[in-house]
Structure formats: structure tokens, C-alpha cells
Amino acid sequence: MNEASEILRYSVNGPTEEEKKAARSPGDRAMTVFNWGILVVCLGVWAVVGALFWVPLLLRRVVEYSVALVPSMLAVGKPWRAAKRLRNAMSFYARGFKVTTELVTRDPKRSERPLLPGNDGAPRGTVLFGELVWAVLIWYPVLLLAGVVQSTPLDLWQHLGGISWREDVLQPFLEWVRTHHP
User: Fold this and answer.
1) Contacts with 59 (C-beta within 8 Å, 6 or more apart), sequence order
2) How far apart are CA 63 and CA 93, in angstroms?
């Protein structure tokens, strides 16, 4: 046979990995590279954002567990709820990587549970806002002590109080509205 003719191979086990790879179109290969690139970006963002939330969360759960341990020991019990929350906090960061990898790379057809709108397991706005405030309360003093942040919240409050809001903010905005929207 010459090289131009096609050869059909039959196998009990199906095509080999090399045959599957060779059969994929260039578009499929490009989409695979694109998907992996998106996964790398998502994991990179999680590496930073997840750590910013994880450290304060872990600190709070360690303190919570330690405080719950005292009455439990006095009552000869066990702080089950605090221990569960501590375990969840300890695995928070690693779970973010695992879930991101799983959800970005999985085949939606083989999904064990489809994600419905509003049922994605994301925390409600107040919970997320509370975690954000807690993270700021932990990280701000650390950054202030490290010299990264130069002003205190009191300095910011005094600066905002010293702004002539009516003259410096409202008047230019109203003038812009009048000139651009007759």
C-alpha cells in the first residue's frame, strides 16, 4: 500500500491515545489550549484572592474554636460546631483550586449535578460583604505595620470630611449633565 491510502484499524479496546489526538481537528486543539489558558488565569486569580480571604477566615475560626473549647471542656463536652467550621476554614483555600479545576475542565454533559441559576453555592451578599469587611479589618493593620499603607482610617475620614462636596463634586457633575444632556 502507498502512504496516501487510508488504513482502517480495528481494536477491541478502541482507538489509542495517539489516534485520538491525531483525529482531533486544529480547532479542537486550539480550544483545548484556550481552555487551559483560562484555567491558569482562574487559578492565578484564586491564588491571590483566595489567600486574601483565607488567612483572616482561618484566624477567626482558630479563635472561635479556642473560645468554644473552654466551655466544652468545663462541661465535659466537645465543640463539634466550632471544629467543623475550623476544618472548613482549613480546607477553604485548597478547595478553591480543586473546585475551579473541576468546573472549568469538566465536560458539562458528564456533570454529576448541573448548576442552576441562583443555586451555585455562592454566599449571599451579606455573607460575602461580612467576609470582605473582616478581611479588610485583618489586612489593613498588617499593611499599616508593614509600611505599605501610610494613612489610618481616621486620616481618610478627616480627608473626606474636608472635601467641599457641593462645590468640588456636585457642581462639576451638574455642569457636565447640563452641557452633555440638554
Assistant:
1) 138
2) 18
Burial of 58 (0-12, 13-18, 19+ CB in 10 A): middle
* 30, 120, 179 from 156: Cα distances, Å: 49, 37, 32
pTM of the model: 0.60
| pLDDT grade for 1, boundaries at 50, 70 and 90 | very low
Q: Which among 40, 57, 31, 52 has a CA at the least distance from the CA of 97?
A: 40
Alpha-carbon distance of 156 to 152, in angstroms, equals: 7
Give the pLDDT confidence of 132-171 residue by residue, as tens digits.
Answer: 889 988 888 888 888 777 777 777 777 777 778 778 778 8
Whether the pLDDT of residue 94 is over 60: the answer is: yes
pLDDT higher than threshold 60 for residue 4? no
Residues 6+ apart with CB under 8 A from 137: 56
State the Cα–Cα distance between residues 38 and 31, nearest whole angstrom: 10
Which amino acid, 143? L
At 144, which amino acid appears? L
Q: Where are the domains of the chain?
A: 1-112
Residue 115: phi, psi to the nearest 5? -85, 120
